Amino acid sequence: MNIKNVYILDGRAILYINGEDAKEFLQNLISNDINKVSDVNSCFSSLLTPQGKFLYEFIIVKHKSGYLLDCEKPQAEELFKQLSLYKLRSKVEILNLSNEFVVAAFSHEKFLTFDEAKDQPGCTIKYREDPIFLDPRNKDLGARLIINLEKLYLSLKKLDLHDANLKEYYSLSHSLGIVPKDLNKLKEKLFGIECNFEELNGIDFKKGCYIGQENTARIKLKNKLSKRLFPINVINGKLHEGESIYNNEIEIGKVLIDNFDEKANFKTKEASININKPHWIKN
Q1: DSSP letters along the chain, please?
Q2: Considering the domain 5-175 in this protein, what is its CATH number?
Q3: What does the pLDDT read at residue 235?
């Protein structure tokens, strides 16, 4: 990622959760510990089904007296409705600020040029009043700026950042094994822990109860994790969503597989593929 490049993530949306009970409200729902979020640190988290299946993922950033949720735009309205269902009598205000705020991403190297920046995922600083944070999932994915749309281009000019092709950012995300978009296609198909949320700093096994905690903890403690989400590179042919993957004519799964030889070539009906294990997954 070029140090002067910036990528306008127009596929992202911003929700804002505010109010007297905002912290407790989120703590009872999300897979991570809201106590990790402060003016100097942001975190990655998810909302799961009661069975522990994936529903939504987001980055949580402290902002004024509440919390910004940086989520994928196609999931934003559903996430808003889901959070509103859980609100009940909590003193919480939930706002969709997607028409007012925008998310921009730039390099890890550029982030480290700022005063007070630390080389650790989730490190958060302020540019004037706007939060800038190193991606809490993986610092190699760079930093993000959440800013009012009206101030965006003037601020980017002052920061000496130049708009670049968003495909470059998606390519980097894919190479790191981090899903950047189309998350609705994973909804309720995988357990959160199968989405590598533990390795992406999105699950806290020491916090109290949250939705989906029981199955998530059971899979972890009993070592029953048999599937992983990995990126696929097409060697030749055409890949079709949802089709099976084969090894020596034996069907071994779809995108999620059990054990595999990282150097082996796999096949679908019309394509030859490689499956890459990201370096941050140890097991």
Answers
A1: --TTEEEE-TTEEEEEEESTTHHHHHHTT-SS-GGG-BTTB-EEEEEE-TTSBEEEEEEEEEETTEEEEEEEHHHHHHHHHHHHHHHTT---EEEE-TTTEEEEEE-HHHHTTSTT--SSTTBEEEETTEEEEE-SS-GGG-EEEEEEGGGHHHHHHHTT-EE--HHHHHHHHHHTT---S-GGGGTTTSBGGGGTTTTTT---SSS---TTHHHHHHHHHTT----B---EEEEEE---TT--EEETTEEEESSSBSS--TT--EE-SSEEEEE---TT---
A2: 3.30.1360.120
A3: 74
